[in-house]
Amino acid sequence: MTDTVVQLETYSVNARAALADAQKLADAARHPQVTARHVLVALLARGWGVDALMRAGHDPGQVLRSNRSYLDAIPAGSGEPSYLSTPVLQAMEAAEGMAATLGRSKVDLECLTRALDVTPTLDLAEWPVHERLGTTRQVEAPRPSFELAVMRASRVLQDLAPELTEKVGPEPRPSFRVIHTLDAILTALLPPHTPPGLRVDPSVRGRLVLGRTDAPSPTIRCGWEPPERITVTIESGERSATQRYAWSDEARLWKSDDGELFADLREVILSLYPEVNIPSDDR
Predict the structure, then answer these.
(1) Is the pLDDT of residue 220 over 60?
(2) Going by DSSP bridges, is the β-strand pair 83-84/33-34 parallel, antiparallel, or unpaired?
(3) Which residues, other chains included, contact 229 with Cβ-Cβ below 8 Å and sequence gap of 6+?
(4) Within 13 Å and on the Cβ side, how many CA atoms surround 263?
(5) pTM listed for this prediction
(6) How many other CB atoms are found less than 10 A from the CB of residue 4?
(7) Angle of CA points 203, 204, 205, to nearest 5°
(8) Percentage above 90 pLDDT, the chain
(9) How much is the pLDDT for 1?
(10) 131 phi and psi, to 5 degrees?
(11) CA 20 to 30 Å from 47, out of 73, 112, 148, 218?
(12) Residue 110 Cα distances to 24, 53, 175, angstroms
């Protein structure tokens, strides 16, 4: 991978939103690269480009589902943030040149998608240039299906993300140290190391939920707080208590005011087993 500076301020709000959505898709799936298929899924999920697909005789819903299935089959990587693939970077460079040639102040969706050229991605034998995904000209189209009608109507909600991002800033993301630490906790508790009766639920990346499967017990939630703190919360009924840990370069440990993350978490998990009388000296 080579370092490339991408000037997103030269892109329209919608074009930036499409690229940001593609990045989120790749990051969430732990894919090494953001590819043309990620961008295509991001576009169609917002309802952008569906008219061009219908004019070309294709079902936008089916195209969206098939490309999502293709992305789902890509093996997950190490968890590092995904980077833009070379074809996507080249397409962005071409889109910027196209916008300049057309005298546009911003790189819009039409320039981006024409430069990206998703025709091979869609496995279409023939798709004329004027019918590519970025085409904005309006023509009479068949009555949309229920799925397509709902997809179009949902745009009013999908446009919230770029609008709010411009006003309040992007959503914070856990650092590599946080993700790596929570992955280490998960790995240490997965089979064959799972304590008997312990439920380990990594339902959301960056969050772990622990509890007993064979008896009533409190719930333990391991998560993070910006900018870089790991939290351990014990919930029992309506009561909860949270301990916060920050990385100490000096100690090379995650430390709270009076404890260390992994040792404290061991004690908390042991507390889920009141039927086991373990002297404190042995813990």
Answers:
(1) yes
(2) parallel
(3) 244, 245, 246
(4) 10
(5) 0.45
(6) 12
(7) 125
(8) 25
(9) 42
(10) -110, 10
(11) 73
(12) 21, 14, 34
Residue 55 CB contacts under 8 Å (≥ 6 apart), including other chains: 131, 135, 139, 141
- Alpha helix segments (H runs only) across the chain: 13-28, 36-45, 50-55, 60-72, 86-101, 109-116, 146-153, 155-158, 160-168, 176-189, 261-270
Q: ∠ at Cα 205 (240, 221), nearest 5°?
A: 15
Residue 55, pLDDT score: 67
Tokens 């989120």, located at residue: 24
Q: Which pair of structure tokens corresponds to residue 42?
A: 């991001």
Residue 132: predicted pLDDT: 41
| Contact yes or no for 83/53 (Cβ under 8 A) | no
Dist. CA 197–CA 211, nearest whole Å: 8
∠ CA(109), CA(112), CA(114), 5° rounding?
100
Q: How high is the pLDDT of residue 56?
A: 65
Q: How far apart are CA 87 and CA 77, in angstroms?
A: 20
Q: In this structure, are residues 94 and 100 in contact, taking their beta carbons and an 8 Å threshold?
A: no
Tokens of 142: 């068949």
Q: What percent of the chain has pLDDT over 70?
A: 80
